[in-house]
Amino acid sequence: MSPTSATCSSTTSASRSSSDVPRHSLARCARSLRSSETSERLRRTRPCSDDRPSRFVRELEGDRGAPPPHHPHCTDRFALVKILLSWLNEYGDFADPADPAAVERLADVMIGLGLEVSEIEHVGATVDGVVTAEVKRLEQHPDAAKVQRVYVDTGDGDEHHVWCGAFNMSAGDIVPLATLGTMMPNGMTIERRGILGIESEGMLCAADELGLGDDHTGILVLPEGTPIGVPYGEALGIEPDILFDLDITRNRPDCWGYVGIARDVAAQMGIAFRPPTPTMAVTGDERTAPVELVDGDRCARFTSTVISGVKVGEGAPWMQRRLTAAGMRPISNVVDVSNYVMLELNQPNHAYDLETLGGGGFRVRLARDGEHLTTLDGEDRTFTAEDLLICDATDTPIGVGGVMGGLDSEISDTTTTVALEMAWFEMVGIGQTVTSTGLRSEASARFERGVDPYGMPTAIARFVELLAETCPDLTVHTGAVDARSEFLPPADRETSVRIMEVNRILGTSLTSDDLPPLLDPIGYRVSGSGDTRTVSLPTWRLDSIEEIDVIEEVARHYGYDRLGKTMPMSTEHGGLSVHQQRRRLLRDILLGLGITEAMPNPFLAPDTLERAGLGGPTISITNPLVVEESVLRTSLRPGLLEAIAYNESHRRPGVRLFEIGRVYPPGEGELPDEYEALCVVLAGEEAPAAMAVWREIARALGVGARVDQSRVPPGLHATRSATLQAGREPTGAVGEIDPTVLERFGVDERVAVLELRLDDVLDREPKPPAWKPVSRMPSSDLDLAFVLGDDVPAEKLEKAIRQGAGSLLVDIDLFDVFRGESLGDGRRSLAYRLRLQAPDRNLTDADIADVRQGAAAAAAKLGAELRG
Fold first, then answer.
1. What's the CA gap between 828 and 312, in Å, rounded?
2. What are phi and psi of 856, to 5 degrees?
3. What is the pLDDT of residues 165-215, one digit of tens each?
């Protein structure tokens, strides 16, 4: 590393000053297809209605970043499958990576087949000006302890001097040299700089500086025999390529492998499909790794093949680059081949060191409750009797069936003979183990969707063929074991397909003779004659069982965009139920009152309900995405309070929100006592505002409820809240949020609240509206204030006033509440405005006086005194 700029020297000398930095080769930085300088991504949105998929292009700022270091059998992503175009082209002539139009056409074909292309990335760009150079000699300057002088040859016969802060190279090594004037991916230009008066003629590069990974612990040492004086991309065989991110749905297990995708796309494009056809010579003497299937219902097939002549080392560079593009970290030639076969043929596999395999064989059984195993990710895990384990012949667990191997099952540098395992596991059991243990892997993602139970012979031969490239003395021994149970899915499955049913479901006019060209290329063999044909189902499509599954394949390869749009004939027209109509009316009322609809998350943190004053039993989610979303809500109130707090924190006080949604209090059985609810919160407002909303709702829906202030729901203000009672059961609550609750949520203003059980309110038979003539006579307002004890609900006083005022009263409104020392403790003043109107005459002073006297007399029965 040369201090060619201030940035370079200050950032590299400290990180590369150790003399024991390991040597690096291509295997340590094989993320060679990632380019931080010119990475361009095209994202595609899902198709909507009948429009073509929309697209947009985004230029990245900075490095996409290589995948995080992880064991090749571990993964955190299960929706996306990465497909490298140059790799895919091995199985058919699909598209030239250098032809953007051809790449677009290929993406369109995959999207049309239901293989959603979520991203297209251009990879493999290199840094101009970086060439290969041979280290001729190294010198340590007596006044520079943290850097050394490196003399390199770029093939022109001259020695070029470079200052470097890394010490992991030696004479004869081939390294990448950024020559003067090179623009690095981070924007730095390589210039002539000096240390101690001695100039540097370039910079030696680490892997991360070339976009070849995240390794910055030393200079990238290239493979022995690499030509010097040529661009490093040319020397390493790096070429521009295309990387597709495909979002594969669960009903396409075959498309978790390159061959499955290639088969589907080749059939649609009408091009020749070239699957791998490996051959395997079995020349070694008999060596067997026996297999015992104890629980054959969970593992219906298990093969073991003994292979000797293994020499563990680096994998082939071309394979390392492909695995890296797929998001996997190259480990060794054996592990790399294992992963390559899995990605190519969708067949997970595991190579065990036969010399360290206890008893030299396998035993597949369910775990014992509490049994332990340390898996490849270094975690000590405890299992139940529902988890499947792979054990050695001594019954010692060495792996979790279909999920991950044990830590002690890894091969080592001294391994020379392996027992190659390939198996088929029951899908539901794998999913249960993944869920209960939280242990996910590339293998489990495939097994729980369904791999081909009969694809193992090809996969074994392919493993041997690829490993022989780096292990020329490889020998396959006779004595391979293929243990099967009666639970193995049958190889020969078929179903009848009626062309009339195909056309009825798809709205097409196909004939029976149209089926073979659509189905045969993808492995669905059509036979027979007439309008009903027999279709043999491929072993790699366990999701296909009956006629409707075959019809789906016909639709995909006929083309969804070619299917017509037909409206089914019906004598009955669709419409909304009464419940739906009343819900829509309720929503319109609330929106008309200036209240905004909110949709908070139905999942809450464990303490959220307690903070809202709504403690009690809840239902917890077994496998939440995050702990903060692990409890099902029993009320809509907490989510809306969090929304108010969020708005307040962004200087938006006084928000008015409502939500119509379902809540999930625990029921007597396993299922919750689920019902639909309404919650309205009015920040910065008091209880009368919530009452006004309730009155509007009650008037519009033709319902009513008694306001019972003797029963205050939890979490609401003790003296400003009440239960809405309809019959014997409460139907809601109205009032204000308890100040203590507001403080817990960080809300500074008062909050009025209205809650309703909508299932009760919307299903209630509304009172038929009664017509009343509109009076043409003028009205008069009468203000009355009453003093009464806090133990008398305002609702009772209002009811008494209505009865005492008589028929002249057309409206009443509580407009003021007053408490003070002049009234005494436990007493308050309630001021009402009464609107009076006669239908046929003007009001007289005597009429108003009679109303006043009647209202006062009725209120006095409750202990209320008329003020003034």
1. 89
2. -65, -40
3. 889 999 999 999 999 999 988 888 888 887 787 888 999 998 888 877 667
User: In degrees to the nearest 10, what's the CA dihedral of 319, 325, 329, 333?
Assistant: -10
CB-facing half-sphere around the CA of 17: CA atoms within 13 A? 10
The winner for highest mean pLDDT among 35-44, 248-257, 582-591, 805-814 is 582-591
Mean pLDDT rounded to a whole number for the chain: 86
pLDDT in tens, 762-786: 888 777 777 778 888 999 999 999 9
Residues in the chain: 868
Contacts of 129 (CB under 8 A, 6+ apart): 178, 179, 181, 182, 183, 190
Distances in whole angstroms, Cα of residue 796 to Cα of each of 272, 706, 791, 864: 86, 10, 11, 11
pTM for this model (two decimals): 0.62
Q: Which residues contact 592 (CB under 8 A, 6 or more apart)?
A: none
Spatial distance between the Cα atoms of 760 and 767, rounded to a whole number of angstroms: 15
Do the beta carbons of residue 559 and residue 508 sit within 8 Å? no
To 5 degrees, how large is the angle CA 388–CA 389–CA 395? 135
Q: Quick one: angle between helices 499-506 and 547-558, nearest 10?
A: 60
Based on the number of CB atoms within 10 Å of its own CB, is 167 exposed (0-12), middle (13-18) or buried (19 or more)? buried
Residue 334 φ/ψ region, left for φ over 0, alpha for ψ in the -120 to 50 degree band, beta for the rest: alpha
What does the H/E/C string look like for 421-489?
EEEEECHHHHHHHHHHHCCCCHHHHHHCCCCCCCCHHHHHHHHHHHHCCCCCCCEEECCCEEEECCCCC
Phi-psi region of 114 (alpha: psi -120 to 50; beta: other; left: phi over 0): left
Rounded-to-integer distance, Cα 632 and Cα 671, Å = 12
Condensed to tens digits (0 to 9), the pLDDT of residues 125-165 reads 888 999 999 999 998 888 877 888 999 999 888 889 999 98
Q: Distance (Å, rounded) from C-alpha 359 to C-alpha 355?
A: 9
